[in-house]
Amino acid sequence: MTMQPRKTALTASLLGVFAAHNCEEVAHFYRDIEALPHRIRECGPWSSQQDFALATGLLTGASALALVAGACLPHGKLQQVLVLGPPICSGG
Questions:
Q1: Over the range 12-45, which residues count as b (16 or more CB within 10 Å of their CB) and which as e?
Q2: Does residue 84 or residue 15 have the better pLDDT?
């Protein structure tokens, strides 16, 4: 399935804004990490800027795949997939 031009532009815009936001998060890592409580700093992917960048990149990639897949579905199918799951919607 392909996307309509307007949907393609909207999807690309959303992905661009999300990626730019995540780049900003990585760039301000050392400033923002100090604001977190010590207990939270020890958990999660923020032990180093490189680990945080990798985790953020994986999140951005997964979000991009989900957004593009959802945008390619016929109208109304995305809601079915989110609620019922892909196997039910595909008839399998």
A1: eeebeeebeebeeebeebeeeeeeeeeeeeeeee
A2: 15
The alpha-carbon radius of gyration of the chain (Å, integer) is 17
87: Cα separation from own chain's centroid: 22
What gap in Å lies between CA 51 and CA 26, rounded to an integer? 10
For residue 75 the two structure tokens come to 């109208």
- Rounded Cα gap, residues 67 and 81, in angstroms: 13
Q: Are 60 and 19 in contact (CB under 8 A)?
A: yes
Average confidence (pLDDT) over 78-92: 52
Give per-residue pLDDT as tens, 53-81: 998 999 899 888 887 777 776 665 655 55
Virtual torsion, Cα 66, 69, 70, 74, nearest 10 deg: -170
Cβ atoms 63, 16 nearer than 8 A: no
